[in-house]
Amino acid sequence: MPVEMPPKQIIAVGPDPRWPITTSAEVVCDSVSPAGVRLTTIEVTFARFVLAELNTHRVFSRNSASSRAIPARKQIRRVVDDPFVPLVWASERPGMQGGDELTGWRRSAAKVAWRAASLGAAGMARAMVGLGVHKSIANRLIEPFAWHTAVVTATDWDGFFEQRCSPLAQPELRVAAESMRAALEASTPTSLRRDDWHLPYITDAGASCGANFNGLGADAGITIVEGHEMSESITDQFPSGGWLDSSGYETGDKCAWISSGQGASANVTFPDGKTFPVQSLWSNAFNNDAGGCVLSY
Length: 297
Prior knowledge:
CATH topology of the largest domain: Gyrase A, domain 2
Structural class: alpha+beta
CATH architecture of the largest domain: 2-Layer Sandwich
Number of strands: 10
Largest sheet: 6 strands, mixed
Strand content: 15-25%
Distance between the termini: 24 Å
Number of domains: 2
Shape: globular
CATH class of the largest domain: Alpha Beta
């Protein structure tokens, strides 16, 4: 059942006071199971060019903003207005860690070169947009200069923090790890019961995700949306390889957000006596095999 999460806390922490604090971390859901296992979901914004390093940590369940999904003009504008710039201009030397930081005219020239490269990439990306090239290609040109947002969920953070909060870590990933650790330490998990769920974002999405739909309450979207997706994970386990109608709709899609008449979303009482708002699902057998949306059959 839904539980009320504590207020979110956005933490921005830099491991070195000289560095601009442009990376942020926000705990969006924090819970602890009856067995004492703490599960935390953190939304973190950091430099796109260290995403590959974050993705090496297999202890994480994660999802990321996609260059294939974000409009190219929006990405280009941000790179022009607010590009990522390296935190430390380390000098070249063998190995994974850079040498002493550049100083004087060399550091200034490196910053100018980076800025020129970001503007040049943005210009070429804009040219591709003008030619009608899809964002999944145009956006790739500006990834080295872009900010990135990922959602990371885990029960064990110690190994990540030990490795990435180290002075030997890539500075741009280190500042992200420091922010995530600070956010985790500042958060208090919500205790869950056996029938509670760890559900980031759903209670925050408001009317766009079913809150108060059909007068079913502020938490209606939790069970409506989860039930919708769970049913489709059963009938279409490998998307587009299971049950679909001729228009490509799955069983939940065909009956989503019906507010009146046959198949309207409503409260349903289950055998254990608990009542939850649910949406209907498509049944081929309903109405003498004509099909229709049903809450039960």
